[in-house]
Amino acid sequence: MNSPDSLHELSSNTSDTNNPLRISVVIIAKAAQDSIRYTLDSLRGQSRKPDEILVVVPSMDDGTVLTAREYGVPVEMDPNDTRGSARAVGVTKTKGDIVVFIDAECIAHPEWIKVLETVYLDKKEVLIQGGPIHRTLNLKNASMTKTLPPCYPLRYVNFVPTANLSFRRKVVEIAGNFNERLHEGEDLEFCIRVRAHKIPIALNPAAIVLHLDKTTGSLVKRYANYGRSRAKVLFIHKRSVLPAALVAIFHILLIPVAILALILLRYDIFLIAVGLPLAHQIYKFSRATWQINDPTLSAFLLDILLSYTLYFFFMWRLLQSIFNPRARKRITERKK
Hints:
With 336 residues, the protein is an alpha/beta fold. It folds into two domains: 4-214, Spore Coat Polysaccharide Biosynthesis Protein SpsA, Chain A (Alpha-Beta Complex), CATH 3.90.550.10; 217-332, no CATH class. Helix content is 47%, strand content 14%. Helix 7 (216-234) packs across helix 8, helix 8 runs antiparallel to helix 9 (267-286) and helix 8 packs across helix 10 (297-323). The longest helix is centred in the C-terminal third of the chain and has 27 residues, at 297-323. The protein is globular.
């Protein structure tokens, strides 16, 4: 890891002033004073330097502030202390033509900004794009692939997490900024609004970042939060998230069907009840943007565990909000 002294004024105009596009990188962080060092180091090592970097924190007393200042990176405070509000602050306070988000627990490939910029320059019709997010157990000793896949062909997806998401500022002018009321699920809700305005979301296979996941337990906890946040977004965009609800119901209901079929020795029904969701998981795993670098069997089994964690917590929060008026009120108050 580089020393802070060597990175002083990291966020000042370190890139070529003749660049046709000005690129701003936004990092929202909370108590990330240790992990954000690796993120800032990875930005320092970009072949195409960012024109601007901004860190957004919930409080100026957050330990992240001192680390960012050591690196010469400006800090803004999010007055609402929500993830949606922090991202909205990042968009509003930066000046770049392109806004790029990365998390404080991520490191970017040295060509990350360059490959994003390449697509924006080559294809004016691309307004928003993201890239794969690979998992790593240790940022300090993380191994980043040296040979990148080509940028093209681009794939078009419904959603890319804000750990690796970028867009032209025009997108916010059309679809609006991030929902400031959302504590979680703000990236999913933003992507839904973007697609509602007929803006395709591109996936650039070469724009790779690594995300720190220390343990399987931390991953499961994160996916449980994803499930709960999807239920919240459902109350904002019922039609958009309805397919996700149907998928979750499909997977969950087939579990008791498979168990009952096994008890009754109906192996034909058992194979169907197991085979259908398994086929869906294989398809989903092959197209995942959030994945371990190596698509091994263990990675696939972990993906199944995480998917079912998401399904269960999604349905739990959904049912809770339907039958618990207080829970429903807490969610619907964040619609705007």
